[in-house]
Design a protein that fits this description.
The structure holds 2 protein chains of 2 kinds. Chain A is 32% helix and 25% strand. By secondary structure, chain A is α/β, with parallel strands linked by helices. The longest helix of chain A has 13 residues, at 127-139. The two termini of chain A are 25 Å apart. Chain B is mainly α. Chain B folds into 2 domains: 1-125; 132-247. Chain B has helices spanning 2-11, 13-35, 39-73, 77-81, 87-125, 127-178, 187-207, 215-244. The longest helix of chain B is centred in the middle third of the chain and has 52 residues, at 127-178. The radius of gyration of chain B is 22 Å and the shape is globular. Residues 143-147 of chain B have low confidence and may be disordered. The chains are: A alpha/beta, B mainly alpha. Chain A binds chain B through residues 11-12, 45, 48-52, 66-68, 70-71, 75, 77, 79-83, 85, 94, 97-99, and chain B through 3, 6-7, 10-11, 14, 75-79, 81-86, 89, 183, 243-247.
Chain lengths: 240, 247
């Protein structure tokens, strides 16, 4: 469905992503995990063409990602990006103008659930409200792949439940969700596969259930093992 | 493309409304000067209207470059580059919207000038004098129109092509700063120097076009060269954006 092959991105002397390869399959919810600066955001941005790789590429249904793949791959950035003159209603109109899979009805439902009103100005929203707006407008699309970068950032505990519910409602046999977060515990409840990124490398991909059944470990345990003391061996996937 | 153009217009709507508001105040002063024989109002109105016409058209071009710079260098870039649109469409919408804005602004000020001059002639000169003036102007106009309409068109298209060339060269400089020069020291300064060098090369190229024997043919060649270079700058910018631009 969505696959990256030997993808590399450098920023000056720093290699943000180094020869990473993996495939996203439909019908799954992926947790993309790793500390700050590990390369998760760069990977997601390359998947939608916002960032151009230096080597390798992302492929959607076998074709290098381009403007056409953005019709079916929805991305939610961790940073606010709406035009400052926009209201919540304008944001919905903008998405309706550009994305055929955008449902205004679904957007309205999500806004009500998130306690946002159409007349609110985006520049006046708090970080928590902005996070809710971003998730509402993204999940109002009927995409085939959702890439959600830190959707739970700055969200209080109660609102977190609403956001998690709106994300999981999109799950379907032909849909894949990739969610990055520092909140490993929260993601463990909903993800069935965990992708660990460490220092720009793929540290490993594990099915959550298999990890539990075969190794007796939770995703949190695995996270500690990879990123804590003694996790140096996970720096490169080919060393696993 | 139309949807992209709609949002490009929305981004610059505020400054265009300010231009319109200042023009409206100047027009009111001008008309008050004409009808109330208020010389100071008339003078101020004419000055500000001429200022608005010249600076307004100039600023619309400059603002287009400022908006493009912001679109590439802030997170607002996602609003454009997350849509299922190519760099060719995104930059094309900017060029189109800006060209149309300039054209309409020019047309608006030309129409306003025509109306104001007519009003002044009609009111200040008196009816008989006005009719004499109209008769005189009409006879001159008939003669002039056959000669100067071509000149007017040449001047208009020369300005349009050279202006579009300057703006698309500016787009290229901004793209270079955001791509091949990104993260490098003094990238803004280097891209500005590159802009000046490219503009110099373009004007040199145009000034060395072969003599085609007549003013019309030479002017046509200059206009055509301007449009070709505009296309080249646009194409080069889009080509680099498609391959190198990371936002």
């Amino acid at each position: 469905m969505l696959e990256c092959k030997e993808i590399t991105k450098r920023y000056g002397r720093k290699t943000a992503v180094d020869q990473v390869s993996f495939a996203i399959e439909p019908g799954r919810i992926y947790a993309m995990l790793g500390p700050n600066g590990s390369g998760k955001t760069t990977l997601m941005k390359m998947a939608v063409g916002l960032v151009k790789p230096d080597a390798g590429n992302f492929f959607y249904n076998g074709i290098p990602v381009d403007k056409n793949s953005r019709r079916e791959v929805a991305y939610m950035s961790t940073e606010p990006y709406f035009y400052s003159w926009m209201t919540v209603k304008d944001v919905g109109r903008y998405y309706a103008d550009f994305f055929e899979d955008f449902s205004e009805k679904r957007y309205q439902e999500l806004l009500e659930r998130m306690e946002l009103t159409p007349d609110m100005k985006t520049k006046a929203l708090s970080s928590g409200m902005m996070a809710k707006l971003k998730i509402a407008v993204t999940m109002a699309r009927s995409a085939k792949v959702y890439l959600l970068d830190e959707p739970l950032n700055g969200i209080d505990l109660l609102a977190r439940d609403e956001i998690i519910a709106s994300m999981t409602e999109a799950a379907a046999p032909d849909v894949a969700l990739v969610i990055s977060s520092h909140l490993v515990d929260e993601l463990e409840k909903i993800a069935d596969t965990a992708i660990f990124i460490k220092q720009g490398h793929l540290a490993g991909i594990w099915k959550v259930k298999e990890l539990r059944e075969t190794q007796g470990k939770s995703v949190t345990d695995q996270y500690r093992e990879i990123y804590g003391h003694g996790g140096e061996n996970y720096a490169k996937a080919d060393e696993i | 493309m139309q949807k992209l153009m709609k949002y490009e217009l929305r981004k610059t709507l505020f400054s265009k409304l300010i231009l319109l508001a200042v023009t409206a105040v100047a027009e009111a002063a001008f008309l008050a000067g004409v009808f109330l024989k208020w010389d100071n109002g008339l003078g101020a109105g004419i000055s500000v209207l001429m200022f608005c016409a010249m600076i307004g058209i100039f600023y619309i071009g400059i603002e287009s470059l400022l908006v493009f710079h912001r679109d590439l260098n802030t997170k607002q870039s996602y609003m454009l580059f997350l849509t299922p649109k190519s760099s060719w469409q995104i930059l094309g919408a900017k060029v189109m919207e800006n060209g149309i804005s300039i054209f309409i602004t020019g047309l608006f000020f030309a129409a306003l000038a025509a109306i104001d001059v007519s009003a002044a002639v009609l009111y200040i000169g008196g009816l008989q004098e006005f009719l004499d003036t109209v008769r005189r102007v009409t006879s001159m106009f008939r003669f002039e129109i056959s000669v100067s309409s071509g000149d007017i068109l040449i001047v208009f298209f020369s300005m349009l092509s050279s202006w579009l060339m300057a703006i698309t060269t500016g787009y290229l400089a901004i793209v270079l700063a955001a791509t091949v020069l990104a993260g490098k020291r003094f990238s803004g300064l280097v891209s500005f120097v590159l802009y000046l060098l490219i503009m110099f090369a373009e004007s040199e190229l145009i000034s060395h076009l072969p003599d085609l024997g007549s003013l019309l043919a030479n002017s046509g060649a200059v206009i055509a060269a301007g449009f070709v270079l505009t296309g080249l700058m646009y194409g080069l910018s889009c080509w680099i954006m498609e391959r190198k631009l990371s936002v």
